[in-house]
Amino acid sequence: MIEKEVHRWYSVHVEQNVQLTRWGHFGVPVLLFPTAGGDAEEVERFHLIHALQSLIEAGRIKVYSTDSVAGRAWISSERSGEYCSRLQNLYDAYIYREVTPAIRRDCRSDSIEIVTAGASIGALNAAASVCRHPDAFKLAIAMSGTFDLSKYLNGLFNQDFYFSSPLHFLPGLEGPVLQLLRTRLILLPSGEGDYEDIGESWRLAGVLGAKRIPNRVDSWGKGYHHDWTTWREMLPKYLGEYA
User: Fold this and answer.
1) 45 with 31: CB under 8 angstroms?
2) Less Cβ around it within 10 Å: N or C end of the chain?
3) What is the CATH number of the domain that holds 153?
4) How much is the CA Rg of the chain, to the nearest whole Å?
């Protein structure tokens, strides 16, 4: 039986009640983002936690997940692109200023480095967290990524969107953050089956590579679709190698 613990609080950044769920007792902290519409326990319902059971029970990793606050707004079609962009930026602040300290307190270390992971829009959040905050996050496993949300903007780019999108802010990034980011790694595995678009991963890889940020695209081929079955196979493999 995997040890599980749930924490809830009101986030001052996204201005709503949020949840952080933890599975495991020891090991490298892994922040696992849900897909666009998911909550903190989506990864358990779709058996991704079960797929990681051996790593969790061996004390190699401790997994955390929180709600997809901004992702829900993007796919709802009820809010403007401007609102969603602002919420995406605030969600990043919530992750960095609320979730990260909570994970570090739980790990009893104020400097422990965290691995991020996720699929689809969860992959965007995983990659963006490392790219924006390499002081806290050391590795992203961004599976089957949906990295360009500009299609929701109707051409109306703004500052919130710019800073939330690695495809857009990385080309202009310089200074100490970039230097530290060059010591991190972004993994971009993707299938090429139904509803997959590995071209999005290659596009992000091109932006990362142009700034000399370590990254790798892994194609899993046409037999792997945009689905939990794919991600249940991918994530244990990469965490087993890198965690």
Assistant:
1) no
2) N
3) 3.40.50.1820
4) 17
